């Protein structure tokens, strides 16, 4: 038994079309399909979720006004001190 990459596409009618590599012989096979869970509570897209997080973070007070290079302690040549 070996793992192979399947070429697949989920159709509009929710059927799964699968193409096998040419070197796979015909015969019986066992296939496990993993699909993401559907979010029932909200239909917002991932982009909307990330935008909401970004707006929240942008509204937070600045805790440290140093430049990123100062916080990470890089010198003017990009090396750590």
Account of the protein in words:
The chain is α+β, with helices and mostly antiparallel strands. It has one domain (7-71). Helix content is 21%, strand content 10%. The protein has a two-stranded antiparallel sheet. The termini are far apart.
Question: Which features characterize this protein?
Answer:
81 residues; alpha+beta; two-stranded antiparallel ribbon; 21% helix
Quick rundown:
This protein has 81 residues and is an alpha+beta fold. The protein is built from two helices and two strands; from the N terminus they run E-E-H-H.
SSE blueprint and pairings:
Elements: E1 7-10, E2 16-19, H1 46-58, H2 68-71
Helix/strand structural class: alpha+beta
SSE run: EEHH
Structural domain count: 1
Q: Helical percent range?
A: 10-25%
Profile the largest sheet: 2 strands, antiparallel
**Radius of gyration from the alpha-carbon trace, in angstroms:** 24 Å
């Amino acid at each position: 038994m070996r793992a192979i990459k399947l070429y697949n596409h989920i159709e509009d009618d929710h059927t799964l079309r699968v193409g096998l590599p040419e070197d796979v012989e015909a015969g019986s096979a066992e296939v496990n399909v993993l699909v993401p869970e559907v979010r029932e509570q909200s239909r917002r897209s991932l982009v909307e979720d990330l935008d909401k997080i970004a707006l929240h973070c942008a509204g937070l007070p600045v805790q440290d006004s140093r430049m990123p290079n100062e916080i990470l302690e890089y010198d003017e040549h990009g090396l750590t001190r």
